[in-house]
Amino acid sequence: MKPDTLKNFVKERMKITRKENILKSNLRKMGIPIIIFCIINSLFLFVNASSSIDLEILPIYSYRVINTYPHDSNAFTQGLVFENGFLYEGTGLYRSSSLRRVELETGTILQISPLPDKYFGEGITIFENKIIQLTWKSNIGFVYERNTFNKLNNFKYSFEGWGITHDGKRLIISDGTSIIHFLDPNTFKEIGQIKVFENNTPVNKINELEYVKGEIYANIWQTNRIARIDPRSGRIIGWIDLTGILEETNDAEEVDVLNGIAYDAVHDRLFVTGKLWPYIFEIQLIKN
Ligand SMILES: [Ca+2]
Known about the structure:
The protein has one helix at about 5-55, and strands spanning about 60-70, 75-85, 85-90, 100, 110-115, 120-125, 130-135, 140-145, 150-155, 165, 170-175, 180-185, 190-195, 195-200, 200, 205-210, 215-220, 225-230, 235-240, 260-265, 270-275, 280-285.
């Protein structure tokens, strides 16, 4: 190598080394801030991802009243079913509990079977021409022949009885917590259960139930809301807000809470009422 060439080579090499040193120095200075930036950025992404799960916004349905029918304002409604052209109703309170067949249009009680005074009647459902009625704290359910109301038998369960419906294969029962029990309709043995939750938070006070087109509709005790529940997971997939439905009638009577959902699968009609309410409403859901 010629001296000039060697000189240039050394010069260039020194330039490169100087640039490398400046770069290394800058990286050392920026190292800590970069690490902090990366951590904050990761945390932000994590929190953001978590929030999108926690804060899943569920659809809230409002309603349109299609028809208003009279309802016995002495009926402390605990169970409501529509089948074969009639409403069937289970009422509660000690010394006032009953099972009823009611004419929808007039509210006329066509048949009534009182429960013994010691039982507080709860939800009802009709499975293969048999009416099943729960009791609140007595751990006993009654089975009646649908047309005659003759008692066929009874069965025991280990939790409080609140609401009941069925999906054609299983009885579906709420107990006032967030748990829904599935029972074999013939043996009354428990064959499964789900926990009802909204965005990973359990939802308690699941009350009157109705199986509607593959979903469980559930009154939440002491609220104006009905939860639409996925029967496979227990996840709430939407809410129905019925706030104001009774007030629309301008009826100032003292009443108890919203409770009672019945579905007419033949004509796709949905009915709701409440404890001691003077009306039953046929409603159509409106997605907001
Ligand atoms: Ca019902």
